[in-house]
Predict the structure.
Amino acid sequence: MTLLSVEDLRVRYGTDEGALHSVNGVSFSIDDRVNYALSGESASGKSTTAKAILGLLPDHATIESGEIEFAGRDLRALTPSERQDLLWEEVAFIPQTAIDALDPVMTVGAQIRQAIQTHREVSERNARRRVRELFETVGLDTDRVDDYPHQFSGGMRQRVVIAMALALDPKLIIADEPTTGLDVIVQDKIIDNILQIQEETDSSLLLITHDLSVIAETCDEMSVLYGGTVLEQGRVDHLLLNPTNPYTMGLKNAFPDLNSDGDDLVSVPGEPPNLESTPTGCAFEPRCPFSTETCATERPELESLPYRSQRVACHEADRAARMRREADRAAT
Ligand code: ATP
Ligand code: MG
C-alpha cells in the first residue's frame, strides 16, 4: 500500500535577488514499511521537498504545483489544526538541525511527556514510563530524563529527538540528515537505532542524506535529486550496483567504497546548478561528461529500465551505462 505519494512537486523561494526554483517537478512514492532515501548534493532540494510534505515551508516559499497524499489524504488541503495533529501522531519529523527541535529551558523528559500528553489521554505516570521506554529504545541512559538539552552531546541530543519522534508511533518518520556532523561511531549507533526501530514498528522512513553508504545500509528504495529534479530512482541495491544516470555514477565515486579506507574520495566536478530559472534541458547537463545538444534543450523524463525497478531521467542513459559497464569490467 502506498503511504506517501508526491506528484510533480514544484517549490520556489522568493528572495531579494529574485526567485529560486528549488524543486522542479519531483515525484516519488513510499509504500508501507519501506525505508526510502532522498539523496543528492547540497542544494539539490532535499530539505525543501521534506518541508513541503510536512507543510513547514517558510512564508516566502510557494508551492507552484504538486499533489501530496499521505494515507489517501490530500496533505495540501489540511487545516492548520489538522496538520498539527498529523505532525506528531502520524508523521514525525527529525529536522536537519536537531537542536532546534528541543526547548532549551525544559528537561528532555518533560518535552517528550508534553508531546505524548497533548495528543493522547495518558496519565502522568504512564507518560513517564513511556519516556523511559523510548530512552531505552534509542540507547539513552534512563537516569538522564530530567537533564536539559545542553547537558547532552550532539549525538545524544540527536537520539533524544529520535525518541521524541517515536513517542506517538508515527506511520512515517522523516529524518533530515540525522547523522551529519556526528562522529563515525555515533553515526553507526544512530543508524543501528533507525534499523532497530524499523524492525520493531510498522513505520516507514524517509531518510534524507547525501551519504550513499548510509543509504546502502538502511534503505530499500531511493531517489537521486539534482537541481530539484529526480535523475534516478528505484531499489537501492539495483541503483547502487547499476547506476545509470551519469550523475548517480559521479555521486557513487564521490563517496568512499564501504570496504575501502576512503582514500579514493573524489567529488563530481563542476558547480551546482543555477536555480534562478527552471532548467530547459537536463539540470545536470552543464556538468555531464555525456551531454549532447538535446540534453541542453529537452528535459529528460524518468523512464523505466527494462527488467529492473529502476527509473532514469537521461537522454544518454544507454551510452552512459554501456561505458560504465566497460569501465567496471576493465577494473576487475
Ligand atoms: P543540503 O544537503 O545542503 O541540506 P538540500 O538538498 O536540503 O541541501 P535545500 O535546503 O532544499 O537543499 O535547498 C535547495 C535550494 O533552495 C538551495 O539553493 C537553497 O539555497 C534554497 N533554499 C533553501 N531554503 C531556503 C530558504 N528558506 N529561503 C531561500 N532559499 C532557500
Ligand atoms: Mg537539507
Observations:
- DSSP finds eleven helices and twelve strands in the chain.
- The mean pLDDT is 89.
- The radius of gyration is 21 Å.
